């Protein structure tokens, strides 16, 4: 059905992920939740890796355990809470957090390498672009990471080259969606304005 043509659906990347999960889960809620949980199980792993980059394995282990216990606690308290996001619901917060954690891990990798390869910054931009297609507010991280990179990289040539590749990666991921929305609406729209109120 041409993906809600000519409307602009909110959170297009997450809608696409849910479409594939429903396809592989045979349209059964329990199967889809198991598949989503398997994907979200990468979240503690990424937090462990991020923690080890910041403060060694003890911090990594603590972050991984806190992330895992957060979901266990949310699942246990969901029946008495009114606004809880956890792995058994189809909300975009956890997938966005998963991609943001991956982006931060890639940003640390970009920072710690003496001569960062262009592919590292390009991949970082692509992950931030995918996060923005799940939660538009994630796009702010491009500016935040570029400001920190300006502070961290003493070599301006290295900073400019990496920043250029980061922005290119971001735009490569967003441009098909921007083109689709331009053809559908006649304007540059990234997300459904109603979802941003």
Helix-strand blueprint:
Layout: H1 12-24, H2 29-40, H3 42-55, H4 57-77, H5 93-112, H6 118-134, H7 140-152, H8 156-185
Helix pairs in contact: 1-2, 1-6, 3-4, 3-5, 5-6, 6-8, 7-8
Task: Name the features.
197 residues; mainly alpha; 71% helix; 0% strand; flat
Structural commentary:
By secondary structure, this protein is mainly alpha-helical. It is built from eight helices and no strands. It has helices spanning 12-24, 29-40, 42-55, 57-77, 93-112, 118-134, 140-152, 156-185. Helix 1 crosses helix 2 (29-40) and helix 6 (118-134) packs parallel to helix 8 (156-185). The longest helix is centred in the last third of the chain and has 30 residues, at 156-185.
Which outline best applies? flat
State the helix count: 8
Largest sheet: none
Beta-strand content bin: under 5%
As a percent range, the share of helical residues equals over 70%
> H/E order of the elements?
HHHHHHHH
Radius of gyration from CA coordinates:
18 Å
Q: What oligomeric assembly is this protein in?
A: single chain
Distance between the termini: 27 Å
Question: Count the strands?
Answer: 0
Name the poorly predicted regions. Answer: none
